[in-house]
Amino acid sequence: MSPFQSTRFRALALSAAVGLNAGCASNMQPRPSEPVKVKVFVAAMFEIGQNTGDRAGEFQHWYERYWKGTTPVAVPGALQPVYCNADGVCGAVLGMGKVNSSSSMQAILLNPKFDFSQAYYVISGVAGTPPSRGTIGEVSWATWLVDYDLGHRWAPEENKAGEPTFMPRKGYEEYRRFKLNPDLVAWAMKLSAETPLKDSDSARAYRLRYPQAAARRAPFVGTGTHMTGDTFFHGPGMSSQAQYIAKLYGADDYVITEMEAAAVTLVIKRTHGTDRVMSLRGAVNFDQGNPRETTLQHLDPAPGETAGGFAETVENIELVGSRVVDHIVANWPQWQNGVPAR
After folding, report:
1. In degrees, to the nearest 5, what angle opens at C-alpha 195 toward C-alphas 39 and 48?
2. CA angle, residues 313, 125, 76, in degrees to nearest 5
3. Strand 120-129 relative to strand 277-286: parallel, antiparallel, unpaired?
4. Phi and psi at residue 122, in whole multiples of 5°?
5. Contact of 275 with 187, CB cutoff 8 Å
6. Which residues have C-beta within 8 Å of that of residue 250, sequence separation ≥ 6?
7. Phi, psi angle pair for 141, to nearest 5°
8. In the chain, what is the greatest distance between 2 CA atoms, to the nearest angstrom?
9. Measured between alpha carbons, how far is 12 from 58 in angstroms, rounded to an integer?
10. How far apart are the first and last CA of the chain?
């Protein structure tokens, strides 16, 4: 072999070795981790402070039950990170209001770190209730979600006395109301209706300011229409309008006023449908004052005149909701392909 041939041979051998090593290195690269297969996603709207160890908001009791010690997963576009446990239960704080919560939900649903193809959803949080239908500390599963805002409104003085001051706006028919899966609602009630609920002396005293039998009840688990609106409406007139809208849209009685569920559900509908969506709310206030106070007094109460029971209600929400979450996860083979027959 000539010196030229020897040099050329060594160069070819070196080139082949480099190529082989490069191929091995390429084959040894770690694969991207598989997305988390979400079985149940729990959405809260706000937390007061930390996720654990201080005064609880909407997320803390869920966090302490399912995600304490887990690693948060940052999601671009979402308000807060997502937490998941080994059982496929995930959750996050989405933010208050329709835009805040729905944009967070959209970002989470589209993130490739999660597989939502078989997921169930629990949209949870605190709410208000009309004293004719609910009470402080109660927990309600939605049968319908109705958007309070999509329409035309005008001042009562510009109308005939007693007539509605709301007219639906055409073009919103497909996303101003959602009938949630009745079989899923029935399952939720079957699993949670007998949950022992927390109560407080301050809530008991506050209920007695109202003459309605429903308002004076001890906390219970019920169902009905949840009304979604960015406006905190108060007073018997606005409450009656909410009931009017619910009936106008063919929904059940309005029992809960909240700010997010219809918007979050619309986002889920566009990607996965609504058959696996649940809305769970706990009442921490009435949507109007008692007969001895004006609406403004109800909105801006004097010290010591506020409704009690907030701490107990946020605990009640998790106590009720976790019964359903735990059942779905424990019986996943029966639930993964859809809501089973009861």
Report:
1. 65
2. 145
3. parallel
4. -120, 105
5. no
6. 177
7. -95, 130
8. 111
9. 67
10. 84
Token pair 């407080």 in the structure block, residue: 200
pLDDT above 90 covers what percent of the chain? Answer: 81
Calculate the average pLDDT of the chain.
91
Total count of residues recorded for the chain: 342
Q: What angle do CA 206, 295, 306 make, to 5 degrees?
A: 30
HSE-CB at 328 with a 13 A cutoff on CA atoms is 29
- 3-state SS of the chain is CCHHHHHHHHHHHHHHHHHHHHHHHHHCCCCCCCCEECCEEEEECCCCCCCCCCCCCCCHHHHHHHCCCCCCECCCCCCCCEEECCCCEEEEECCCCHHHHHHHHHHHHHCCCEECCCCEEEEEEEEEECCCCCCCCCEEEEEEEEECCCEEECCHHHCCCCCCCEEECCCCCCCCEEECCHHHHHHHHHHHCCCCCCCCHHHHHHHCCCCCCCCCCCCCEEEEEEEECCCCCCCHHHHHHHHHHHHHCCCCCEEEEECCHHHHHHHHHHHHCCCCEEEEEEEEEECCCCCCCCHHHHHCCCCCCCCCCHHHHHHHHHHHHHHHHHHHHHCHHHHCCCCCCC
Which residue ranges make up each domain of the chain? 36-335
Report the predicted TM-score, pTM, of the whole model to 2 decimal places: 0.89
Q: How far is CA 260 from CA 100, 274, 294, 300, in A?
A: 9, 15, 27, 24
List pLDDT tens digits, range 273-317. 999 999 999 999 999 999 999 999 898 888 888 899 999 999 999
* Domain 36-335, classified CATH 1.10.10.10, yes or no: no
Distance from C-alpha of 138 to C-alpha of 307, rounded to nearest angstrom: 13
